[in-house]
Amino acid sequence: MALILLLAINLFNYIDRYVLAGVEPEIRTHFFRPDDPNAHALVGLLGTAFLVSYMVSAPIFGWLADRMSRWLIIGVSVTLWSAATAMSGLAGTFALLLIARLFVGVGEGGYGPAAPTIIADLFPLLSRGRMLAYFYVAIPVGSAIGFAVGGFVAGHWSWQIAFFVVAPPGLLLGLACFFLRDPRERSVRVKEKQRATLSDYLKLVRIRSYVLNTLAMTALTFAIGGMSFWVPGYLEYRGLPPTSRIVFGGITVLAGLTATLAGGIAGDSLRKRLPGSYFLVSGIGVIIAFPFSVVMLFTPFPSAWIMMFVAVFFLFFNTGPSNTALANVTDPSVRATAFAVNILIIHALGDAAAPPLIGAVADRTNMNVAFLVVSAMMLVAGVLWLWGAKYLPSDTAAIEARRIE
C-alpha cells in the first residue's frame, strides 16, 4: 500500500513539474513580445526557480525526515506543491508565476528525500532495486502526461487551465499520507540509532561510490533536465504543431516506463554475477543513448521520432539502479539526508542553470546547437558510473555488515 501511494504521488510530482514545460510556448507568447531577444532565457528562469527552491529545501527536509515521521513530511509537502501548482494558473504576471514555481519546488523538496527512503526501509537488498524501479516509473510516465496535458489543454483552452487540471489529485493524495505510520517505528535497531551524529553525515563524502554516483547523476541531470524543459520549444523550432507534444509524451511513456523497469530488473538480476551491476547498467545505458540523441537533431521528422525513442529508452535505463545504489551504500539513520544532499548537488551543478543556458544559446544560434552542446554530458555520466562500479560492491557490503550487527 505504501509503494502504491508513493508511486501515485510521484506520478503527480512529475505531472505538476512538467506541465509547465508543456505550456512553455504559450507562456512565452503571453508574457513576452515575439521579437524579445531574451524571451527564451527569461522563461527558462521558471525552471531554474523551481530547481533552486527544490535543491535548497531538500537538505532541510532530509534532515527533518531522519528525525520525525517521513509520512508527515510527505503529506505537508504534497499539499504545498499541489496548492502552488494551482496558484500558477492564477498568476497574472510573470513575477507571480515565478513565485508560484518557487513554492512548487519547496513542496517537492520535502518529498524527494523522504519517499525513496521509506521504500528502502520496507524492502530488503535483494528486491530493493525492483521496488525502486516501480516507484521511479512515475518519472517518464508523469513527465509525459505533464507534457501531453499541457499541450492538449493549451491547444484547446488556455495554458492557465492546464495547472488547474493537474492540481486537485495531489491534494487528495497528500491527505492520505497523514494516516500512515513510519516503517522505522517497527525497527528497534533503527529507532535507537536514528539520531545520527555529525560524523555520520561527514562519512558520506568518504563513500566513493556515493560520490561518483552523485557526480554521474549531476552530469546526466544537466543534459536531460535542460533539454526536457525545451522539448516543446524544440519541436516548435522544427516546425511541428502543438499536438506533437502528445507524440513526445507517448514516446516518453513507452520508452521511459519499459526502460526504468528493465533497468531495475537488470540491476537486481546481474548483481550476483556482477556486484557493480547497478553502475554498469547505468553507465552503458547513457553511453548508448548519446549517439542517438545527436543523430536525432539532424534527422528529419517523422524519422527523428525513432532516434528520439531509442535515446529516451537508454537515458531512463539508469533511473532505478542509480537510486538503488544511493540507498544501498548509506546507513538508514542518514539515508534521507543522503538523498537530500544528492538532490542538492545534482540540481545545483546540474539542471538549475541548464534551462536559461540552453535558452541563451538558442537565442544566439538555434535549438539544434543548444541541444548539441549539453548532450555531451551524457558521456561524462557514463564514464563516472563505469569508474564507480569497482567501489560499489565493497561500499554496499559495509552497510549490510553494519545492519546485521
What does this structure look like?
- The two termini are 30 Å apart.
- The chain is 81% helix and 0% strand.
- Helix 4 runs antiparallel to helix 8 (159-177), helix 11 crosses helix 17 and helix 18 crosses helix 19 (367-375).
- The model is unreliable at 187-193 (pLDDT under 50).
- It has a single domain, classed as Growth Hormone, Chain: A (Up-down Bundle), CATH 1.20.1250.20.
- It contains 21 helices and no strands.
Task: Let me know the largest β-sheet.
Answer: none
Instruction: Estimate nothing, just give the exact number of structural domains.
Output: 1
From the 3D structure, determine the CATH topology: Growth Hormone, Chain: A
Q: Just give the CATH class.
A: Mainly Alpha
Average pLDDT: 85
Distance separating the two termini: 30 Å
SSE sequence, one letter per element:
HHHHHHHHHHHHHHHHHHHHH
